[in-house]
Design a protein that fits this description.
- This protein is mostly helical.
- It has one domain.
- This is Gustatory receptor.
């Protein structure tokens, strides 16, 4: 939970945005602004373009290397007695890899929109506060933090860890088994983070509708 006061929308989503950056889904820092408080300066923007390209390229190479290492280190024809099961696993891993790669590249193409959205939401919040119905940013922050903890940590790490332990026939020796385990947990966690992005977006809208309801409702 928050250890300080959460005063704006940027602070309310900073935990989830950090998770996005950790997995390659947020090329730019969220709260870097110039003196106008709206957009980075031209020099800073040029530097950020270069760093964001390097950041995105690095994660593309990282996920590609993990996927290739998984394919070359895993015998899909011998891990299961059924060829259909091994083929289904290969298909699932391939689709998950493509989904992750698309998310990383798409995040780079729309990298500046996160700041624009936060700025616009901040303007809406200011109008609501002046009208006497402020948005509860602390509640939003706590809800996002709790959702991250329960979904990403509990469901992905613990639930999928148990599922991966059942599949200890993968790989040769404990090195291969541990690698398979780590890849399985990583893939599922990335997928959970991807899904939670939509949930966080919905909570941002819901909190502002709640403020409007308090303002105009009975």
């Amino acid at each position: 939970m928050s250890t300080g006061t959460v005063n704006n929308v940027g602070q309310s989503i900073r935990v989830y945005y950090f998770v996005l950056r950790l997995f390659g889904f947020a090329p730019l820092p969220l709260l870097v602004t110039d003196d106008s408080g709206l957009q980075p300066s031209a020099a800073r923007a040029a530097t950020e373009r270069a760093w964001s390209a390097a950041y995105t390229g690095g994660f593309v190479l990282l996920y590609s290397a993990i996927f290739v290492a998984y394919l070359t280190g895993e015998s899909f024809t011998t891990s299961y007695e059924s060829f259909l099961l091994s083929g289904a696993e290969l298909t699932y891993c391939g689709l998950l890899f493509l989904n992750t790669l698309f998310h990383v590249l798409h995040a780079w193409t729309v990298r500046s929109k996160a700041r624009t959205i936060v700025r616009d939401l901040g303007a809406v919040d200011g109008e609501l506060a002046r009208a006497g119905s402020p948005v509860n940013h602390q509640r939003q922050y706590d809800a996002i933090w709790t959702g991250l903890y329960l979904n990403v940590v509990t469901l992905s790490a613990l639930g999928q860890l148990s599922a991966a332990l059942i599949e200890l026939n993968h790989g040769d020796g404990w090195t291969g088994k541990l690698f398979y385990l780590l890849v399985f947990v990583l893939a599922t966690t990335v997928f959970a983070v991807d899904l939670l992005e939509g949930i966080v977006a919905v909570t941002l809208v819901v909190r502002r509708y709640e403020a409007l309801q308090r303002l105009f409702g009975p």
